[in-house]
Specification:
Largest sheet: 2 strands, antiparallel
Number of strands: 2
Structural class: mainly alpha
Radius of gyration: 22 Å
Distance between the termini: 35 Å
Strand content: under 5%
Helix content: over 70%
Number of helices: 19
């Protein structure tokens, strides 16, 4: 694609990448409607069946920074196609089995496809016209939430009307079509980075993250004071500290920690954890309220499918408001969009207590939270890309996506503990009380407010990211001189090459 390519081609690239991100995020919610039935379907215990949900979260968290760096080094289009191929392969494995171990393995492979999101964000910076980058990146970033919201009703509908394996045959087919679209629409752009892939760094990060996220996600089941949970937390601290020391000393690190420690990048990543936490808390509270029986006095008595359909507007709202967030970023800067998003999320949670007694009320507060998430998720990549050299765009976005994943995992653990502790016995089952749900939404709102306060500390002078890297002769993609995007904001950016940014 050349600089003079029509806007229609650019629109096709954006649509393709956003669709790929939505398909990848769908995999995370694919099995949620079947959580209660998994032990019987897979002939195993409830604790073992939970690995079907946990496995893709773990591999997705590891894959985002690793595949981001691989994309910087070896070409983002190539890595996008590999991610899509893994989505197809994982789906086929799951479609062909009814046993626990192959199912967990297939789900783990599906999770690796989450690398599509940071790769797609950085690809847009390379191939989309500068004036359209903000809107495109906002839509791609929001695809995480859009796919999750749309996946619930789709999965519930398929699970209720067909054999559950149809979920995976369908995901394999959709993923294959997505791969064809990527191969046809997304142009090749020469890698901007030089050097070798940091395999020791990737292994160290993987081990540290798995230990940390396992302890967070399984702590409530194993016991927060158990030897297993404590040992995993301790191992995570030791491994990640050692990994950080290694990354600071190696010539070609997986993650440039010096760039990550810069104030703008560091605070944006911390805010990302908090926004991820706040977004997921709503995703845990609203479906449960919708499905609890009306005999409790606060349950809304909807079926699994109906609850999923009522939650669908949250994804559609996120899709609709992403471009508005990008326009705000273009006019006032991505810091303003992130601050606005965090405050809107907090406002949505403030609406929750008086609205939780009716189905429309739950939908309203969920949609308000989703509007805030759309603004915030679109601003985060813009802040990151404005603060790192072009040769590290995908890796930096991958690390930012990892921070969001950490926020989701912590939210799941904290919200789960709150609802479990504030529950009562109903027919032999522990059911969260109304006060438990109120406490959960207050915590979500408080975390969103904390994210807003943290955003105020982000420096205002973040330049607006724009423009692609210099292309080799005959290569696809717009051609700009080295440092084009950074000079547009008065800051010289490094050309593609072996040089690395230091603090």
């Amino acid at each position: 694609m050349k600089a003079s390519a029509p806007a229609a081609r650019s629109g096709a690239v954006v649509a393709t990448l956003a669709a790929a991100g939505i398909v990848a995020s769908l995999m995370g919610t694919l099995m949620i409607p079947l959580i209660g039935e998994l032990p019987g379907l897979l002939h195993t215990s409830a604790s073992s069946a939970s690995w079907v949900i946990t496995a893709p979260l773990l591999t997705g968290a590891v894959a985002t920074p690793v595949f981001g760096r691989l994309g910087d080094l070896y070409g983002k289009r190539r890595l996008l196609l590999i991610c899509v191929a893994l989505l197809v392969a994982g789906s086929l494995v799951c479609a062909l089995t009814s046993s626990l171990i192959p199912m967990v393995a297939g789900r783990a492979v599906q999770g690796i496809g989450m690398g599509i999101v940071p790769l797609g964000i950085s690809t847009m910076r390379d191939v989309v016209a500068p004036e359209r980058v903000g809107t495109a990146v906002a839509l791609m970033s929001a695809s995480l939430g859009i796919g999750g919201a749309l996946g619930l009703p789709l999965s519930a509908a398929v699970a209720q009307n067909f054999d559950w394996h149809a979920l995976f045959w369908g995901s394999a087919a959709v993923s294959a079509l997505t791969g064809l679209a990527v191969a046809r629409q997304v142009p090749y752009v020469p890698p901007a980075a030089r050097g070798r892939f940091d395999m020791p760094g990737a292994l160290g990060l993987a081990v540290g993250l798995v230990c940390l996220l396992l302890a967070v996600s399984k702590g409530a089941t194993w016991g927060w004071t158990s030897a297993t949970t404590g040992g995993l937390f301790a191992a995570a601290v030791v491994v990640l500290l050692g990994w950080g020391r290694f990354e600071l000393r190696t010539a070609d690190p997986l993650v440039d920690l010096r760039a990550t420690a810069r104030r703008r990048v560091l605070l944006t990543n911390l805010a990302s954890i908090m926004i991820g936490f706040a977004m997921f808390a709503q995703s845990l509270v609203a479906p449960q309220l919708l499905q609890l029986p009306t005999s409790l006095g606060y349950g809304l008595g909807r079926s699994m499918l109906a609850a999923g359909l009522w939650m669908m507007p949250t994804g559609l709202v996120m899709m609709a408001f992403s471009p508005l967030g990008a326009k705000l970023s273009a006019r006032s800067g991505p810091r303003t969009s992130l601050l606005t998003g965090a405050l809107v999320v907090a406002f949505g949670y403030a609406l929750a207590p008086p609205l939780m007694g009716s189905v429309p009320g739950v939908v309203i507060f969920g949609c308000v939270v989703s509007v805030g998430v759309a603004f915030a998720y679109g601003a985060m990549p813009a802040l990151i890309m404005a603060s790192v050299p072009r040769s590290e765009t995908a890796a930096a976005n991958g690390f930012n996506a990892l921070m969001r994943s950490v926020g989701l995992s912590v939210s799941s653990a904290v919200t789960g503990v709150v609802l479990a502790r504030m529950s009562h016995d109903v027919g032999g089952h522990a059911v969260p009380t109304q006060d438990g749900f109120r406490a959960a939404v207050l915590i979500g709102g408080g975390v969103a407010l904390a994210a807003a306060l943290l955003t105020l500390a982000i420096p205002r002078d973040a330049p607006t990211p724009a423009g692609p890297p210099p292309a080799e002769p005959g290569a696809s993609g717009p051609v700009h001189p080295p440092g084009h995007a950074d000079r547009a904001s008065g800051k010289e950016g490094p050309p593609a090459g072996p040089s690395r940014t230091t603090a």
